[in-house]
């Protein structure tokens, strides 16, 4: 029989921070699909970007490491609630497999809207899935050992020039007209999940203790980031340099590598995540209540938002005078070659409209899950 751990209440700071990054994630994806320049350039390329575009992309770097870290922490808390290694292992492995299947079916179709599935894209959902499978296999290992393994990978992988798809992005041909694009190489992201699993025990502390601890850890991470980055000592393959003015020099300083996540990327983004967690340990208010609505149903929101924003892309293209015959799928998402799209201000307006429209749906689904906690399948969505 499964024995429940006394820790049964939700950790509000997790839901609040996760809700915030889910909103930022939607901004990033709407920009990817619809911004007028998204198919022709990198928004963090200092030779062609604008400060507004750069920062729109940069702030969303917070999403993936936060989502992965909190998935690890949630896996730890889940294991403590169940107090049953076998049950927890089966859950982690089955949920991990489910996430991998979702990535290459519903998520990939939502991204590309390509019925031929010419491109399979491995992103954060599959990386988390593989991480949960690995955690399930290591469940009897001391969480501290798991965390140390994660820290070692985060801290040391920049020493080596690794080209394997396990460590670095790449393209793997799957036969004629089909390719697997590894956008999120699993090992660097699983390392973040491992650290989150180890740090999951911090959420068992009293709220005020957590708040202080998260603030200290966040400041230390950012301090180490600034120290290493200032002298271009170690931790990122792209050193910063003087630019045409002070603002662009600052952008160069914070422009670190996400693919794969470098040590400095992890320090900077997880540092901000810890500061947000510290802030989120405050008493609730109307804004935190809204964020919790999104943060309690992250996978449901993730799947749903693709099937809202991608059809909206087609509406935009039709409104701009294109016909379905002009649509080009695969890496173009359906956009005509070199044409179509929205200015950045319109991307922001559309983003606000989308997240506003998803709010009542997420609130309904969250309430449904709360009323039907005995339905096992709900724990997979």
UniProtKB/TrEMBL annotation:
As given in the record, the signal peptide range reads: none
Q: Which domain of life is it from?
A: Bacteria
Bilayer-spanning residue ranges: 91-113, 119-141, 148-168, 180-200, 212-231, 259-278, 299-322, 342-366
Known Pfam families for this protein? HGSNAT_cat
Keyword list, A-Z: Membrane, Transmembrane, Transmembrane helix
Output the PANTHER family linked to this UniProt entry.
Answer: HEPARAN-ALPHA-GLUCOSAMINIDE N-ACETYLTRANSFERASE CATALYTIC DOMAIN-CONTAINING PROTEIN, MEMBRANE PROTEIN-LIKE PROTEIN
The molecule here is called Uncharacterized membrane protein
